[in-house]
Amino acid sequence: MTTTHKPLTRRAWANAIAQPGKEFPPTPLPILSGQIPEGLRGSLYRNGPARLERGGVRAGHWFDGDGAILGVHFTDAGATGLYRYVQTAGYQDEAQKEEFLYPNYGMTAPGRIWERWGKPMKNAANTSVLTLPDKLLALWEGGNPHALDLQTLETRGTDNLSQLGEGAPFSAHPKCDPKTGEIFNFGVAAGLNTTLKVYKSDPTGQIIQQGSVPLDGIPLVHDFVLAGQYLVFFVPPVRVNLLKAGLGLSSYSDSMEWQPDHPTQIIVLDRETLTLVSRSEAKPWFQWHFTNGYVDTDGAIAIDFVRYQDFQTNQYLKEVATGQTRTQAKGTLWQARLNPQTGKVTHLHELLDRACEFPVVPPQVVGKVSSDIYLSVHRDGVDISQEMFGAIARFNSKTDTLAIADMGENRYPSEPLYAADALKPQQGWVLTVVYDGNTDTSEVFVFDSDGLDEEPACRIGLPSVIPHSFHGKWKPA
Fold first, then answer.
1. FRET label pair with 268: which of 69, 107, 200, 311, CA 20 to 30 Å apart?
2. CATH assignment of the domain containing 418
3. Cα radius of gyration (the chain)
4. What pLDDT score was predicted for residue 1?
5. Among candidates 402, 338, 346, 406, which has minimal Cα distance to 371?
């Protein structure tokens, strides 16, 4: 059978990653429109793959790019921004030789096959951040986090959080309990006997408790959810072909196999003991990100997440690194309800039939009932196989309404982040970093959280283009 593809058109979003991101020192930022809200005081941090090329060689996957952190500090005097690469050992080695040296998610190490065996993956430190009282952690799920200075973004080195072994995995999606300050996270320790490592940390980030659950094969588990007294994991039917990846015959990305004849596994843990409550199976699907979870009045766990029918999303994300995409991978917002004691899914339905990603809720409602969900969506009428998200939105699950902030043609916002107003805690702001492909510039947009379909309250200019990033956090002053 012959497969035909539509001609590819280079879209404006590709220019943001065509060249490596350019660092800049602490710089006062111009207000382009509006004014910074009086109650918006603190720091915005964003992390993403900023360098997808070395020595004329392109990275194999969007996930392979070296991490760089954007920091924007909001004070009474205005906004100050800075942008710095995380100085990982791999980044420093490759910068010195100006060539790729290590395997990564979508790349094998250079050289002949036998020269690749046993070579460690580069910790790209490029996925998200965790703000702690005395440091910022740059997160990458395949290894230890890197600690950075909160103000200067100077890299201090890897951080074992008092209990992590060297190189031990620490996911990019920790969950912080808004009442206790406890931080929950996990890591997949891959091998012949793969385990799900679960961590509980105190509010300073130091690990105080660990748990472990065996996994089948080597799955791709990117995120999880805190729901009341439970931690819930969905393990989709994606497995790494260990022989291909271990021998360096192909990258981890290319070694991942979608197995639609296998189920999605549901794992429910007790948050106090980090022990298994239940384990069950459901129909196959894939997800990168959860929105939130909570225990309903009837004792059921409700979980909102972005669900994909299959694993084509990985191919789309691989194509992003080339600057041209053709694969359609539509994820939509769903809710699953399950019995915590059996893990069985009792109800699964779509909340929003619109391609979306990067769903977040206000930090103060993590693990609790929440109705407002902020997420990235496509603009109306675009070809989602060739475009990136051009809008952010607020979806209210109670009223089934969607308020959209359409950025306009050739403008691409990052994941929306919620910041509570310091003067009026019940009020909030939504921050996003926008790449404008019309002018080849980047800005910070600030919206009223209840007025995403209105003009932004403030637009702030940045000194250089910020390549498309993955995740970030707001740290109140």
1. 311
2. 2.130.10.10
3. 21
4. 40
5. 402
Mean pLDDT, 10 residues at a time, over the chain (477 residues)?
Answer: 55 96 98 97 98 95 98 97 98 96 90 71 96 98 96 97 93 97 96 93 98 95 98 97 78 94 98 98 98 96 98 98 96 98 97 97 95 96 96 96 97 98 94 97 97 96 98 97
Residue type, 405: A
**Inter-residue contact 436 to 410 (CB < 8 Å):** yes
d(CA 124, CA 323): 20
CA gap 375, 418 in Å, rounded = 11
Provide the sign of the torsion angle of the four alpha carbons 449, 453, 456, 457, taken in this order.
Answer: negative
- How far apart are the C-alpha atoms of 67 and 283, rounded to whole Å? 35
State the Cα–Cα distance between residues 68 and 60, nearest whole angstrom.
18
The pLDDT assigned to 2 comes to 43
What is the DSSP secondary-structure string of 256-304? EEE-TTSPEEEEEEETTT--EEEEEEE---B-S-EEEEEE-TTS-EEEE
Give the number of domains in the chain. Answer: 1
Closest CA to 145 of 362, 162, 318: 162
Q: Cβ distance 363 to 418 under 8 Å?
A: yes
Q: Does 4 map to a domain?
A: no
Q: Write out the residue range of the structural domain in which residue 165 sits.
A: 12-476
Q: State which amino acid sits at residue 295.
A: V
Confidence at residue 192, expressed as pLDDT on a 0 to 100 scale: 81
- Alpha-carbon distance of 119 to 142, in angstroms, equals 14
DSSP3 helix / strand / coil % (the chain, rounded to 5):
10, 40, 50
Number of continuous H segments (helices) and E segments (strands) in the chain = 6, 35
d(C-alpha 17, C-alpha 321), whole Å: 8
By the 8 A CB rule, do 456 and 33 touch? yes
DSSP-derived secondary structure letter, 147: E
3-state secondary structure of 13: helix
Q: Residue 314 phi/psi, 5° resolution? A: -65, -40
- pLDDT at site 242: 80
- Quote the pLDDT of residue 245: 76
Within-domain flag for 6: no
Q: Is 3 within the bounds of a domain?
A: no
Dihedral sign for Cα atoms in the order 255, 141, 350, 357: negative
- Please report, as a single letter, which amino acid is at residue 176: C
Residue 204: what residue type? T
Q: Which residue has the tokens 């995995």?
A: 169
251 close to 272: Cβ distance less than 8 angstroms? no
A 10 A CB-CB count for 262 gives 17
Model pTM score:
0.95
Q: Does 7 map to a domain?
A: no
